[in-house]
Amino acid sequence: MRTMHSALFLGKSGKRIKDSLVPSSFRRCDYPLRACYAPSAAGRVRGGAAPAEKARCRARPYLPTVLEDSREMVLNQRSQQTSAEQITKKVDTGRIVVMDEGAKSPIASVDELAETTDHRYRLLDILSPLHVAGVVNDAELARITPVCTKKSAVDEPHPALTHLQDVLVELPTLETLAHFGLLDAITGFYKVHLRADAHRGLLQRLAAVAFQEETREWHIDLWTRLRGDSRFRFVPYTMPEEMREKGSNPKDLLSFFASFIAQETKTALMADDRLCQAFALNDMQDVACAAFGTDALVLALMNAGKLTPAKAAATIHQLIAWRYRFLVPPPEVLKALADQYRGNPPGQALQEVAEYVHDCMRDPGLFGGSEKTESGESMAGRCYMTWMTTIADFLILVWADEGFTAEAATRLTEWSARELLPSLPRVLDARMKVRMSSLTPRVFLSHALLKTGAQSGNPRMAEALKALKDALRLKDDEYTQIVTEILNDTAKTASQS
After folding, report:
1. 59 found inside a domain
2. Is 268 helix (H, G, I), strand (E, B) or coil?
3. 305 membership: H or E segment, kind and range
4. Residue ranges of the alpha helices (H) in 105-170?
5. What is the pLDDT of residues 360-377, one digit of tens each?
6. Are 349 and 336 a contacting pair, CB within 8 Å?
């Protein structure tokens, strides 16, 4: 899923729309299915995400598909999950040994499905010794015999398998034995081995099953909450006339139903899909708050005191993990992530944010052309500069917090300059890259210097600016020149106003 952070949408004047993006109350917002899905699924904003006053969930068109979607998310072959869980348990207890990656073992190999010139024992070959030894009874052998499609591979060069012999059993064959309830008998009679890649695939399959089950629970929980909460109303939609004339199938336009209603009623649209947001923002330019996403909702809840900064940071971090593109969390969110690792910054969460920042800068979906605004800046340039100023604000917050020792704050500052500061957007041309890189130290330091003004009297601010200078590898004369220019510009602006 690719979503454009709302802060990057520019109005006709070039001013960001973010400040007026989220309505003061969520009384009348259109919630498409996918928009409601994210906060509920995250499990992060429950208890605070519901609108303070009665909301209108304009989602009646989705209701006929709820049961259909629920059925599609049900795991059809539950036996595969059960077999995989049984085999994994045997590995965990040491009853099945996983071979080293790429190891070539001379032990006997058992594979019922392989069509190869190399010798392979078959299901009959691994079961016959158990039957002779009385481990497998007649009924159990008769039950599995119909799936033993290959003839025995026992011959003079390849004698019958024996008790406690090391055998490499391929995963499909092992799953067949588990399905027929013979896994305990096999692992108790032989020393069973499994290939490393097969074991890895098994774990991936179980992880996929767990994710599918979790997604289904999210889906059911979402609709249970929506239908059981009187603050949400389900209303019909009206398909635009031009689409009716084309004979469009309503199911093909399911994702746009909320957008249609939002435009018809001139109400705000909550949607995480970039196309839906752009659709609403372009067609409802006379609406103060035309569209917003989950990230804007979370930040609004945090600013309203409905979510703690730590809870909001965890939710934004989850959106980043879900690869929501071009989010720029505020400094308070970055600070909340850093607070988790005060003793040993930066911590895993901030490291993942740093990777995310560079991924966004390399993304070809970040628009690099000039926008139709008075300033003519690009979204890529705005995104880059917003990250610069956000990180500067974040570091000043860290230095202002006595909970961070000077050593920890210095370490975090150096790491931020080295790893967290964004790389230049890939989509910009060479001329713009040179220009923006030359402005980077000035923009970064000017923002940090302005923020220190709110911390007047704090002796650590001088240390903070020195740490920033050292982290940016600026010489004393370069630093002095930048600070002097910033102070002169500030004085001129103040005199003109």
Report:
1. no
2. strand
3. none
4. 123-132, 138-144
5. 999 998 888 877 777 778
6. no
